[in-house]
Amino acid sequence: YQYQNFWFSADAEQIANRVVSVYNENNFANLNEFQVTWELLKNGQVISSGDAEELDVAPLTRGTIRVPFTMPSAISAGDEFQLNVSVAAKDGTDMVPAGTELSYGQFSVPAAAPKYTPQNNPSEIATENAGSDLTVSGKNFKLAISRSTGLITSYSYEGETLLESGPTPNFWRGNVENDGGNASRKLFDTAWRGAMNGAKVSSIDTDELDGNPIIRVNLTLPNAGNTAVQMVYTIDGTGAVTVSMQVDATRSGLGNFLRVGSIMTLPAGFENVTWYGNGPVETFNDRKTNGRLGIWNSTVSEMFYPYMKADDTGNLTGVKWIAVQSEKHQHGLVIAAETPAEASALHFMPEDFDYAQHPYELHPRKQTYLSLDYGSMGTGSATCGQGTLPQYQLPSSRIYAWTYTIIPADKDSNAGQLNEYTKPYRRTNTYIQEQSSHGYLIPIAETARLKETENGTYAVGSIDIPYRAAVDALTNGKRSFTLEANVIPTGNPDYNMFLGKGDYAFALRATPNSLDFFIYDGAWQMVSYTMPDSMKANWLYHQHQVAGVFDAASGKLLIYADGKMLAEKSISTSGVRASDFDL
Fold it and tell me: Are strands 62-66 and 375-376 parallel, antiparallel or unpaired?
Protein backbone atom coordinates (compact mmCIF):
# COMPACT_ATOMS: atom_id res chain seq x y z
CA TYR A 1 0.00 0.00 0.00
CA GLN A 2 1.05 3.57 -0.44
CA TYR A 3 -0.04 6.87 1.06
CA GLN A 4 -0.43 9.66 -1.48
CA ASN A 5 -2.60 12.70 -2.11
CA PHE A 6 -3.01 12.41 -5.88
CA TRP A 7 -4.79 9.39 -7.38
CA PHE A 8 -4.62 8.65 -11.09
CA SER A 9 -6.90 6.63 -13.35
CA ALA A 10 -7.32 6.21 -17.10
CA ASP A 11 -9.01 3.79 -19.45
CA ALA A 12 -7.60 2.81 -22.81
CA GLU A 13 -9.52 5.52 -24.67
CA GLN A 14 -8.10 8.21 -22.40
CA ILE A 15 -4.58 6.85 -22.87
CA ALA A 16 -5.10 6.93 -26.64
CA ASN A 17 -6.09 10.60 -26.28
CA ARG A 18 -3.09 11.29 -23.98
CA VAL A 19 -5.33 12.16 -21.04
CA VAL A 20 -5.19 10.90 -17.43
CA SER A 21 -7.80 11.54 -14.72
CA VAL A 22 -6.64 12.69 -11.30
CA TYR A 23 -8.29 13.18 -7.91
CA ASN A 24 -6.57 15.77 -5.71
CA GLU A 25 -6.98 14.62 -2.11
CA ASN A 26 -5.14 17.64 -0.70
CA ASN A 27 -7.17 20.04 1.41
CA PHE A 28 -5.31 23.17 0.29
CA ALA A 29 -2.72 22.50 -2.45
CA ASN A 30 -3.43 22.62 -6.21
CA LEU A 31 -1.76 20.02 -8.44
CA ASN A 32 -0.05 22.84 -10.36
CA GLU A 33 2.06 23.56 -7.29
CA PHE A 34 3.95 20.31 -7.91
CA GLN A 35 6.22 18.87 -10.59
CA VAL A 36 4.27 16.32 -12.65
CA THR A 37 6.16 14.17 -15.15
CA TRP A 38 5.51 11.17 -17.38
CA GLU A 39 7.62 8.28 -18.67
CA LEU A 40 6.92 5.92 -21.56
CA LEU A 41 8.31 2.41 -21.06
CA LYS A 42 8.89 -0.21 -23.72
CA ASN A 43 9.37 -3.71 -22.35
CA GLY A 44 10.06 -2.28 -18.91
CA GLN A 45 12.65 0.35 -19.97
CA VAL A 46 12.12 4.12 -20.26
CA ILE A 47 12.29 5.27 -23.89
CA SER A 48 10.94 8.84 -23.49
CA SER A 49 9.81 11.24 -20.77
CA GLY A 50 8.55 14.75 -20.26
CA ASP A 51 6.37 17.13 -18.29
CA ALA A 52 2.63 16.68 -17.95
CA GLU A 53 0.44 19.59 -19.01
CA GLU A 54 -2.81 21.32 -17.94
CA LEU A 55 -2.20 20.76 -14.25
CA ASP A 56 -4.89 22.99 -12.73
CA VAL A 57 -6.69 20.57 -10.39
CA ALA A 58 -7.93 22.30 -7.27
CA PRO A 59 -7.96 20.74 -3.80
CA LEU A 60 -10.57 18.01 -3.24
CA THR A 61 -11.63 18.01 -6.91
CA ARG A 62 -11.28 15.76 -9.91
CA GLY A 63 -9.75 16.77 -13.20
CA THR A 64 -7.61 15.61 -16.09
CA ILE A 65 -4.03 16.24 -17.15
CA ARG A 66 -2.34 15.83 -20.53
CA VAL A 67 0.59 13.46 -21.05
CA PRO A 68 1.92 14.28 -24.56
CA PHE A 69 3.93 11.13 -25.27
CA THR A 70 4.58 9.81 -28.78
CA MET A 71 4.64 6.14 -29.60
CA PRO A 72 7.67 4.85 -31.49
CA SER A 73 7.22 4.47 -35.25
CA ALA A 74 8.62 0.93 -35.23
CA ILE A 75 7.04 -1.61 -32.89
CA SER A 76 8.45 -5.13 -32.86
CA ALA A 77 6.56 -8.35 -32.27
CA GLY A 78 5.85 -8.90 -28.60
CA ASP A 79 6.64 -5.31 -27.53
CA GLU A 80 4.56 -3.87 -24.70
CA PHE A 81 4.30 -0.37 -23.30
CA GLN A 82 3.50 1.27 -19.97
CA LEU A 83 2.97 4.88 -18.97
CA ASN A 84 4.26 6.17 -15.62
CA VAL A 85 2.90 9.39 -14.10
CA SER A 86 4.75 10.91 -11.14
CA VAL A 87 4.15 13.85 -8.80
CA ALA A 88 7.19 15.32 -7.03
CA ALA A 89 7.85 18.26 -4.74
CA LYS A 90 8.68 21.39 -6.76
CA ASP A 91 9.78 23.69 -3.95
CA GLY A 92 11.67 21.67 -1.40
CA THR A 93 11.64 21.97 2.38
CA ASP A 94 13.97 20.55 5.03
CA MET A 95 11.55 17.67 5.47
CA VAL A 96 10.67 17.13 1.79
CA PRO A 97 13.52 18.09 -0.57
CA ALA A 98 12.73 19.23 -4.10
CA GLY A 99 12.27 16.28 -6.44
CA THR A 100 10.92 13.91 -3.76
CA GLU A 101 8.25 11.70 -5.33
CA LEU A 102 4.90 12.08 -3.58
CA SER A 103 2.43 10.19 -5.79
CA TYR A 104 2.49 7.98 -8.87
CA GLY A 105 0.39 5.91 -11.23
CA GLN A 106 1.08 3.38 -13.99
CA PHE A 107 -1.01 2.36 -16.99
CA SER A 108 -0.77 -0.08 -19.88
CA VAL A 109 -0.58 1.58 -23.29
CA PRO A 110 -2.36 -0.27 -26.11
CA ALA A 111 -0.11 -0.86 -29.11
CA ALA A 112 -0.73 -2.78 -32.32
CA ALA A 113 2.41 -4.89 -32.04
CA PRO A 114 2.72 -7.79 -34.49
CA LYS A 115 1.95 -11.17 -33.01
CA TYR A 116 5.12 -12.89 -31.85
CA THR A 117 5.65 -16.21 -33.60
CA PRO A 118 8.27 -18.43 -31.92
CA GLN A 119 10.77 -20.04 -34.26
CA ASN A 120 11.75 -23.67 -33.93
CA ASN A 121 15.46 -24.23 -33.19
CA PRO A 122 16.40 -27.40 -35.03
CA SER A 123 19.57 -28.88 -33.65
CA GLU A 124 20.75 -32.38 -32.97
CA ILE A 125 19.86 -33.42 -29.42
CA ALA A 126 20.83 -36.75 -27.92
CA THR A 127 18.91 -38.51 -25.14
CA GLU A 128 20.59 -41.30 -23.20
CA ASN A 129 18.29 -43.37 -21.04
CA ALA A 130 20.70 -45.58 -19.11
CA GLY A 131 22.04 -45.87 -15.58
CA SER A 132 20.73 -43.77 -12.70
CA ASP A 133 20.25 -40.63 -14.80
CA LEU A 134 18.44 -39.72 -17.96
CA THR A 135 20.83 -37.46 -19.89
CA VAL A 136 19.97 -34.92 -22.59
CA SER A 137 22.77 -33.19 -24.48
CA GLY A 138 23.10 -30.84 -27.43
CA LYS A 139 25.75 -28.78 -29.16
CA ASN A 140 26.52 -26.58 -26.14
CA PHE A 141 24.61 -28.04 -23.23
CA LYS A 142 24.03 -31.09 -21.09
CA LEU A 143 21.51 -31.86 -18.38
CA ALA A 144 20.87 -34.89 -16.22
CA ILE A 145 17.59 -35.96 -14.66
CA SER A 146 17.65 -38.48 -11.83
CA ARG A 147 15.54 -41.55 -12.49
CA SER A 148 15.00 -41.98 -8.75
CA THR A 149 13.70 -38.43 -8.05
CA GLY A 150 12.59 -37.19 -11.48
CA LEU A 151 14.49 -33.95 -10.84
CA ILE A 152 17.34 -32.25 -12.67
CA THR A 153 20.64 -33.00 -10.90
CA SER A 154 22.86 -30.82 -13.09
CA TYR A 155 22.74 -28.45 -16.04
CA SER A 156 25.82 -27.16 -17.86
CA TYR A 157 26.30 -24.83 -20.81
CA GLU A 158 29.57 -24.57 -22.72
CA GLY A 159 31.25 -26.51 -19.94
CA GLU A 160 30.02 -24.30 -17.08
CA THR A 161 27.71 -25.65 -14.41
CA LEU A 162 24.80 -23.23 -14.22
CA LEU A 163 22.39 -25.33 -12.21
CA GLU A 164 23.39 -27.72 -9.42
CA SER A 165 19.93 -29.13 -8.75
CA GLY A 166 16.25 -28.53 -9.29
CA PRO A 167 13.80 -27.17 -9.96
CA THR A 168 12.30 -29.07 -7.02
CA PRO A 169 8.62 -28.69 -6.11
CA ASN A 170 8.35 -26.47 -3.03
CA PHE A 171 5.34 -25.72 -0.81
CA TRP A 172 6.94 -23.72 1.98
CA ARG A 173 8.33 -20.27 2.63
CA GLY A 174 9.94 -18.73 5.66
CA ASN A 175 7.08 -17.47 7.81
CA VAL A 176 6.31 -13.78 7.91
CA GLU A 177 5.25 -12.12 11.15
CA ASN A 178 1.54 -12.53 10.40
CA ASP A 179 1.79 -16.23 9.59
CA GLY A 180 1.55 -17.19 13.25
CA GLY A 181 -1.95 -15.78 13.36
CA ASN A 182 -2.74 -17.20 9.94
CA ALA A 183 -1.69 -20.69 11.07
CA SER A 184 -3.73 -20.51 14.28
CA ARG A 185 -6.76 -19.63 12.14
CA LYS A 186 -5.92 -22.60 9.88
CA LEU A 187 -5.54 -20.39 6.81
CA PHE A 188 -2.70 -22.67 5.73
CA ASP A 189 -1.60 -26.17 6.69
CA THR A 190 1.82 -26.51 8.33
CA ALA A 191 2.04 -30.09 6.98
CA TRP A 192 3.11 -28.63 3.63
CA ARG A 193 6.52 -27.88 5.12
CA GLY A 194 7.64 -31.50 4.76
CA ALA A 195 5.58 -32.36 1.70
CA MET A 196 8.56 -33.40 -0.46
CA ASN A 197 10.02 -35.76 2.15
CA GLY A 198 9.74 -39.28 0.78
CA ALA A 199 8.45 -38.16 -2.63
CA LYS A 200 8.13 -41.11 -5.02
CA VAL A 201 8.47 -41.28 -8.79
CA SER A 202 5.31 -42.83 -10.21
CA SER A 203 6.50 -42.74 -13.81
CA ILE A 204 9.02 -41.22 -16.21
CA ASP A 205 8.17 -41.19 -19.90
CA THR A 206 10.06 -39.74 -22.85
CA ASP A 207 8.66 -38.38 -26.09
CA GLU A 208 9.64 -36.02 -28.88
CA LEU A 209 8.02 -33.07 -30.67
CA ASP A 210 9.65 -31.37 -33.68
CA GLY A 211 12.95 -32.93 -32.70
CA ASN A 212 12.78 -31.62 -29.12
CA PRO A 213 12.88 -34.22 -26.31
CA ILE A 214 9.96 -34.21 -23.87
CA ILE A 215 10.33 -35.90 -20.49
CA ARG A 216 7.21 -36.39 -18.36
CA VAL A 217 7.68 -37.11 -14.66
CA ASN A 218 4.85 -37.98 -12.28
CA LEU A 219 5.53 -37.73 -8.56
CA THR A 220 3.45 -38.87 -5.61
CA LEU A 221 3.92 -37.21 -2.21
CA PRO A 222 3.01 -39.73 0.56
CA ASN A 223 3.86 -37.13 3.20
CA ALA A 224 1.22 -34.81 1.76
CA GLY A 225 -1.76 -37.10 1.38
CA ASN A 226 -0.49 -38.54 -1.93
CA THR A 227 -0.58 -35.16 -3.63
CA ALA A 228 0.17 -35.64 -7.34
CA VAL A 229 2.85 -33.51 -9.02
CA GLN A 230 3.55 -33.62 -12.72
CA MET A 231 6.68 -32.07 -14.24
CA VAL A 232 7.15 -31.94 -18.00
CA TYR A 233 10.58 -30.97 -19.34
CA THR A 234 10.85 -29.86 -22.97
CA ILE A 235 14.38 -29.19 -24.24
CA ASP A 236 15.08 -27.28 -27.46
CA GLY A 237 18.20 -26.95 -29.57
CA THR A 238 19.39 -23.75 -27.88
CA GLY A 239 19.65 -25.54 -24.53
CA ALA A 240 16.51 -23.88 -23.16
CA VAL A 241 14.53 -26.14 -20.81
CA THR A 242 10.81 -25.50 -20.49
CA VAL A 243 9.34 -26.79 -17.22
CA SER A 244 5.57 -27.26 -17.00
CA MET A 245 4.36 -28.06 -13.49
CA GLN A 246 0.99 -29.20 -12.18
CA VAL A 247 0.07 -29.82 -8.54
CA ASP A 248 -3.10 -31.67 -7.57
CA ALA A 249 -3.81 -31.88 -3.83
CA THR A 250 -7.58 -31.98 -4.17
CA ARG A 251 -7.75 -35.44 -2.53
CA SER A 252 -4.90 -34.98 -0.07
CA GLY A 253 -7.00 -34.05 2.94
CA LEU A 254 -4.58 -31.19 3.68
CA GLY A 255 -5.51 -27.55 4.12
CA ASN A 256 -4.41 -24.49 2.16
CA PHE A 257 -0.91 -24.10 0.74
CA LEU A 258 1.53 -21.50 2.03
CA ARG A 259 3.36 -21.53 -1.30
CA VAL A 260 2.94 -23.41 -4.58
CA GLY A 261 6.23 -23.27 -6.40
CA SER A 262 9.65 -24.66 -7.18
CA ILE A 263 13.21 -23.96 -6.12
CA MET A 264 16.55 -24.52 -7.85
CA THR A 265 20.14 -24.32 -6.63
CA LEU A 266 22.70 -22.23 -8.51
CA PRO A 267 26.47 -22.44 -7.82
CA ALA A 268 28.29 -20.02 -5.53
CA GLY A 269 28.95 -16.66 -7.16
CA PHE A 270 25.57 -16.14 -8.84
CA GLU A 271 24.87 -12.78 -7.25
CA ASN A 272 23.55 -10.24 -9.78
CA VAL A 273 19.77 -10.20 -10.23
CA THR A 274 17.73 -8.50 -12.96
CA TRP A 275 14.00 -8.96 -13.33
CA TYR A 276 11.08 -7.70 -15.38
CA GLY A 277 8.13 -7.44 -13.02
CA ASN A 278 6.95 -5.47 -10.01
CA GLY A 279 9.72 -3.62 -8.19
CA PRO A 280 12.00 -2.16 -7.07
CA VAL A 281 11.41 -3.90 -3.71
CA GLU A 282 9.63 -7.05 -2.55
CA THR A 283 5.89 -7.46 -3.03
CA PHE A 284 3.24 -10.02 -2.07
CA ASN A 285 -0.06 -10.72 -3.79
CA ASP A 286 -1.85 -8.59 -1.19
CA ARG A 287 0.99 -6.07 -0.83
CA LYS A 288 1.93 -4.98 -4.33
CA THR A 289 0.45 -1.55 -4.97
CA ASN A 290 3.85 -0.23 -3.90
CA GLY A 291 5.40 -1.96 -6.92
CA ARG A 292 5.64 -0.75 -10.50
CA LEU A 293 6.14 -2.89 -13.57
CA GLY A 294 9.63 -2.37 -14.95
CA ILE A 295 13.11 -3.83 -15.25
CA TRP A 296 14.95 -3.75 -11.94
CA ASN A 297 18.44 -4.66 -10.74
CA SER A 298 19.65 -5.88 -7.36
CA THR A 299 21.86 -8.56 -5.83
CA VAL A 300 20.99 -11.79 -4.11
CA SER A 301 22.45 -10.41 -0.87
CA GLU A 302 20.39 -7.22 -1.14
CA MET A 303 17.21 -9.22 -1.71
CA PHE A 304 17.39 -10.20 1.96
CA TYR A 305 15.92 -7.53 4.24
CA PRO A 306 16.81 -7.80 7.96
CA TYR A 307 13.42 -7.50 9.62
CA MET A 308 13.42 -7.48 13.42
CA LYS A 309 12.50 -11.16 13.25
CA ALA A 310 13.80 -13.69 10.74
CA ASP A 311 10.94 -13.36 8.23
CA ASP A 312 10.64 -14.44 4.62
CA THR A 313 11.93 -11.70 2.37
CA GLY A 314 12.63 -10.81 -1.25
CA ASN A 315 9.40 -12.12 -2.77
CA LEU A 316 8.63 -10.66 -6.22
CA THR A 317 5.26 -10.61 -8.01
CA GLY A 318 4.20 -10.13 -11.61
CA VAL A 319 7.55 -11.51 -12.80
CA LYS A 320 7.79 -11.96 -16.58
CA TRP A 321 11.46 -12.97 -16.41
CA ILE A 322 14.27 -13.03 -13.88
CA ALA A 323 18.01 -13.39 -14.59
CA VAL A 324 20.78 -14.36 -12.18
CA GLN A 325 24.39 -13.89 -13.31
CA SER A 326 27.89 -14.37 -11.92
CA GLU A 327 31.06 -12.35 -12.47
CA LYS A 328 32.98 -15.64 -12.33
CA HIS A 329 30.98 -17.38 -15.06
CA GLN A 330 30.73 -16.52 -18.73
CA HIS A 331 27.05 -17.46 -18.70
CA GLY A 332 24.12 -17.00 -16.37
CA LEU A 333 20.49 -18.09 -16.35
CA VAL A 334 17.35 -16.19 -17.25
CA ILE A 335 14.01 -17.73 -16.34
CA ALA A 336 11.06 -16.77 -18.56
CA ALA A 337 7.59 -17.25 -17.06
CA GLU A 338 4.93 -18.17 -19.61
CA THR A 339 2.52 -15.98 -17.62
CA PRO A 340 3.58 -13.60 -14.80
CA ALA A 341 4.67 -15.53 -11.74
CA GLU A 342 6.31 -15.01 -8.36
CA ALA A 343 10.06 -15.37 -7.84
CA SER A 344 12.89 -14.80 -5.38
CA ALA A 345 16.65 -15.25 -5.21
CA LEU A 346 18.26 -15.67 -1.79
CA HIS A 347 21.24 -17.21 -0.04
CA PHE A 348 18.79 -19.06 2.23
CA MET A 349 16.58 -22.10 1.92
CA PRO A 350 12.97 -21.60 3.10
CA GLU A 351 13.50 -23.75 6.19
CA ASP A 352 16.50 -21.65 7.29
CA PHE A 353 14.05 -19.02 8.50
CA ASP A 354 12.26 -21.61 10.66
CA TYR A 355 15.36 -22.17 12.79
CA ALA A 356 16.13 -18.54 13.54
CA GLN A 357 14.29 -15.98 15.61
CA HIS A 358 16.35 -12.97 14.56
CA PRO A 359 18.53 -12.09 11.53
CA TYR A 360 21.83 -12.46 13.40
CA GLU A 361 21.04 -16.17 13.81
CA LEU A 362 20.84 -16.67 10.04
CA HIS A 363 23.94 -17.79 8.15
CA PRO A 364 23.89 -17.11 4.38
CA ARG A 365 24.82 -20.08 2.21
CA LYS A 366 27.28 -19.75 -0.65
CA GLN A 367 24.82 -21.04 -3.23
CA THR A 368 21.93 -19.04 -4.64
CA TYR A 369 18.41 -20.46 -4.26
CA LEU A 370 16.21 -19.28 -7.09
CA SER A 371 12.47 -19.81 -6.73
CA LEU A 372 9.94 -19.61 -9.54
CA ASP A 373 6.45 -20.01 -8.09
CA TYR A 374 2.83 -20.11 -9.06
CA GLY A 375 2.31 -18.01 -5.96
CA SER A 376 2.47 -17.55 -2.20
CA MET A 377 -0.25 -16.83 0.31
CA GLY A 378 -0.68 -13.14 1.07
CA THR A 379 0.60 -11.71 4.31
CA GLY A 380 -2.67 -10.50 5.79
CA SER A 381 -2.67 -8.72 9.17
CA ALA A 382 -3.17 -11.64 11.55
CA THR A 383 -0.55 -10.51 14.10
CA CYS A 384 -3.15 -8.11 15.46
CA GLY A 385 -5.98 -8.06 12.95
CA GLN A 386 -7.56 -9.64 9.90
CA GLY A 387 -6.11 -12.86 8.56
CA THR A 388 -5.17 -13.18 4.91
CA LEU A 389 -8.31 -12.59 2.85
CA PRO A 390 -9.72 -15.53 0.84
CA GLN A 391 -8.75 -14.07 -2.54
CA TYR A 392 -5.09 -14.09 -1.46
CA GLN A 393 -5.07 -17.67 -0.16
CA LEU A 394 -4.06 -20.87 -1.98
CA PRO A 395 -6.78 -23.48 -1.35
CA SER A 396 -5.84 -27.13 -1.82
CA SER A 397 -9.23 -27.74 -3.44
CA ARG A 398 -7.99 -26.56 -6.83
CA ILE A 399 -5.29 -27.72 -9.26
CA TYR A 400 -2.35 -25.39 -9.92
CA ALA A 401 -0.38 -25.25 -13.15
CA TRP A 402 2.41 -22.94 -14.33
CA THR A 403 5.16 -23.02 -16.92
CA TYR A 404 8.56 -21.38 -17.23
CA THR A 405 11.72 -21.82 -19.27
CA ILE A 406 15.34 -21.94 -18.08
CA ILE A 407 17.54 -20.19 -20.65
CA PRO A 408 21.36 -19.85 -20.72
CA ALA A 409 22.50 -16.26 -21.35
CA ASP A 410 25.86 -14.54 -21.76
CA LYS A 411 26.80 -12.76 -18.53
CA ASP A 412 27.18 -9.45 -20.39
CA SER A 413 23.65 -9.58 -21.80
CA ASN A 414 21.82 -6.31 -21.18
CA ALA A 415 18.15 -5.98 -20.23
CA GLY A 416 17.03 -5.51 -23.83
CA GLN A 417 18.82 -8.67 -24.92
CA LEU A 418 17.45 -10.65 -21.98
CA ASN A 419 13.97 -9.52 -22.93
CA GLU A 420 14.44 -10.74 -26.50
CA TYR A 421 15.80 -14.09 -25.30
CA THR A 422 12.64 -14.65 -23.29
CA LYS A 423 10.01 -13.60 -25.86
CA PRO A 424 9.71 -17.06 -27.49
CA TYR A 425 8.82 -18.57 -24.12
CA ARG A 426 6.46 -15.92 -22.71
CA ARG A 427 2.86 -15.14 -23.48
CA THR A 428 3.49 -11.55 -24.53
CA ASN A 429 0.71 -8.98 -24.70
CA THR A 430 -1.31 -9.06 -27.91
CA TYR A 431 -3.94 -6.59 -29.09
CA ILE A 432 -6.79 -7.18 -31.51
CA GLN A 433 -8.76 -4.43 -33.21
CA GLU A 434 -12.51 -4.61 -32.72
CA GLN A 435 -14.67 -4.23 -35.79
CA SER A 436 -16.78 -1.16 -35.00
CA SER A 437 -16.11 2.31 -36.38
CA HIS A 438 -14.16 3.05 -33.18
CA GLY A 439 -11.47 0.50 -34.04
CA TYR A 440 -10.56 0.03 -30.37
CA LEU A 441 -7.43 -1.98 -29.57
CA ILE A 442 -8.44 -4.76 -27.16
CA PRO A 443 -5.62 -6.27 -25.09
CA ILE A 444 -5.33 -10.04 -24.89
CA ALA A 445 -3.65 -10.14 -21.50
CA GLU A 446 -2.21 -13.07 -19.56
CA THR A 447 -5.74 -14.10 -18.53
CA ALA A 448 -6.47 -15.26 -22.07
CA ARG A 449 -4.86 -16.81 -25.12
CA LEU A 450 -5.76 -16.80 -28.79
CA LYS A 451 -6.68 -20.09 -30.46
CA GLU A 452 -6.94 -20.64 -34.20
CA THR A 453 -9.89 -22.75 -35.41
CA GLU A 454 -11.38 -23.54 -38.80
CA ASN A 455 -14.01 -20.87 -38.06
CA GLY A 456 -11.52 -18.14 -37.16
CA THR A 457 -9.56 -16.93 -34.15
CA TYR A 458 -11.05 -17.38 -30.70
CA ALA A 459 -9.98 -16.15 -27.29
CA VAL A 460 -9.81 -18.70 -24.49
CA GLY A 461 -9.99 -17.26 -20.96
CA SER A 462 -11.18 -13.80 -19.97
CA ILE A 463 -10.62 -10.43 -21.64
CA ASP A 464 -11.18 -6.99 -20.16
CA ILE A 465 -12.39 -4.30 -22.57
CA PRO A 466 -10.62 -1.25 -21.04
CA TYR A 467 -12.89 1.38 -22.62
CA ARG A 468 -15.18 1.83 -19.65
CA ALA A 469 -16.37 5.35 -20.44
CA ALA A 470 -17.31 4.39 -24.00
CA VAL A 471 -19.20 1.30 -22.85
CA ASP A 472 -20.95 3.24 -20.08
CA ALA A 473 -22.11 5.84 -22.59
CA LEU A 474 -23.84 3.08 -24.55
CA THR A 475 -25.35 1.09 -21.70
CA ASN A 476 -25.88 3.16 -18.53
CA GLY A 477 -29.39 4.29 -17.68
CA LYS A 478 -32.40 3.75 -19.89
CA ARG A 479 -30.56 3.15 -23.16
CA SER A 480 -31.27 0.32 -25.57
CA PHE A 481 -28.33 -1.92 -26.38
CA THR A 482 -27.42 -5.35 -27.71
CA LEU A 483 -24.76 -7.76 -26.48
CA GLU A 484 -23.64 -10.21 -29.15
CA ALA A 485 -20.88 -12.82 -29.20
CA ASN A 486 -19.72 -15.81 -31.21
CA VAL A 487 -18.88 -18.48 -28.66
CA ILE A 488 -17.90 -22.12 -28.20
CA PRO A 489 -19.32 -23.02 -24.77
CA THR A 490 -17.30 -25.46 -22.67
CA GLY A 491 -19.54 -25.82 -19.61
CA ASN A 492 -16.56 -25.25 -17.32
CA PRO A 493 -17.17 -23.52 -15.00
CA ASP A 494 -20.92 -24.10 -14.74
CA TYR A 495 -21.58 -20.43 -15.47
CA ASN A 496 -20.15 -19.66 -18.91
CA MET A 497 -20.00 -15.86 -18.78
CA PHE A 498 -19.90 -14.58 -22.36
CA LEU A 499 -20.18 -10.83 -21.79
CA GLY A 500 -20.57 -9.09 -18.46
CA LYS A 501 -19.86 -5.91 -16.55
CA GLY A 502 -20.06 -7.29 -13.06
CA ASP A 503 -23.06 -8.65 -11.18
CA TYR A 504 -24.43 -5.14 -10.73
CA ALA A 505 -24.71 -3.97 -14.34
CA PHE A 506 -25.50 -6.59 -17.01
CA ALA A 507 -24.43 -10.01 -18.24
CA LEU A 508 -25.03 -12.58 -20.96
CA ARG A 509 -24.25 -16.14 -19.86
CA ALA A 510 -25.09 -19.81 -20.10
CA THR A 511 -25.52 -22.50 -17.47
CA PRO A 512 -25.73 -26.27 -18.10
CA ASN A 513 -29.50 -25.87 -18.49
CA SER A 514 -30.23 -22.30 -19.58
CA LEU A 515 -29.24 -19.22 -21.53
CA ASP A 516 -29.58 -16.02 -19.45
CA PHE A 517 -29.48 -12.27 -20.00
CA PHE A 518 -29.91 -9.83 -17.14
CA ILE A 519 -29.58 -6.17 -16.24
CA TYR A 520 -29.33 -4.65 -12.77
CA ASP A 521 -31.30 -1.53 -11.86
CA GLY A 522 -31.23 -1.93 -8.08
CA ALA A 523 -32.66 -5.42 -8.52
CA TRP A 524 -31.88 -8.15 -11.03
CA GLN A 525 -34.11 -8.22 -14.10
CA MET A 526 -33.51 -11.40 -16.10
CA VAL A 527 -34.84 -13.23 -19.09
CA SER A 528 -33.92 -16.91 -19.11
CA TYR A 529 -34.43 -19.66 -21.64
CA THR A 530 -34.44 -23.27 -20.45
CA MET A 531 -32.68 -25.40 -23.04
CA PRO A 532 -34.57 -28.46 -24.31
CA ASP A 533 -32.63 -31.71 -24.57
CA SER A 534 -32.26 -31.27 -28.33
CA MET A 535 -30.47 -27.95 -27.81
CA LYS A 536 -28.30 -29.29 -24.98
CA ALA A 537 -27.11 -32.13 -27.20
CA ASN A 538 -25.63 -29.66 -29.68
CA TRP A 539 -24.61 -26.89 -27.25
CA LEU A 540 -21.21 -27.66 -25.76
CA TYR A 541 -18.09 -27.47 -27.94
CA HIS A 542 -20.02 -26.16 -30.94
CA GLN A 543 -19.97 -22.63 -32.32
CA HIS A 544 -22.99 -20.46 -31.55
CA GLN A 545 -24.01 -16.87 -32.02
CA VAL A 546 -25.71 -15.54 -28.88
CA ALA A 547 -27.24 -12.15 -28.14
CA GLY A 548 -29.06 -10.32 -25.38
CA VAL A 549 -31.15 -7.23 -26.14
CA PHE A 550 -32.41 -4.53 -23.78
CA ASP A 551 -35.15 -2.59 -25.58
CA ALA A 552 -35.60 0.43 -23.32
CA ALA A 553 -38.45 1.91 -25.38
CA SER A 554 -40.68 -1.15 -25.08
CA GLY A 555 -39.32 -2.25 -21.67
CA LYS A 556 -38.27 -5.69 -22.86
CA LEU A 557 -35.38 -8.09 -22.42
CA LEU A 558 -34.85 -10.54 -25.29
CA ILE A 559 -32.45 -13.42 -25.76
CA TYR A 560 -31.28 -14.98 -29.03
CA ALA A 561 -29.18 -17.94 -30.13
CA ASP A 562 -28.13 -18.82 -33.67
CA GLY A 563 -30.42 -16.21 -35.21
CA LYS A 564 -33.60 -17.23 -33.35
CA MET A 565 -35.34 -15.31 -30.58
CA LEU A 566 -35.70 -17.79 -27.73
CA ALA A 567 -37.36 -15.77 -24.99
CA GLU A 568 -38.52 -12.28 -24.05
CA LYS A 569 -39.68 -10.61 -20.86
CA SER A 570 -41.45 -7.33 -20.22
CA ILE A 571 -40.00 -5.34 -17.33
CA SER A 572 -40.47 -2.03 -15.58
CA THR A 573 -37.06 -0.49 -15.04
CA SER A 574 -35.19 2.75 -14.48
CA GLY A 575 -32.30 1.40 -16.57
CA VAL A 576 -28.89 -0.11 -16.01
CA ARG A 577 -26.94 0.95 -12.95
CA ALA A 578 -23.42 2.31 -13.40
CA SER A 579 -20.60 -0.12 -12.67
CA ASP A 580 -16.91 0.38 -11.93
CA PHE A 581 -16.00 -2.83 -13.78
CA ASP A 582 -14.73 -3.12 -17.32
CA LEU A 583 -16.75 -5.12 -19.81
Answer: unpaired
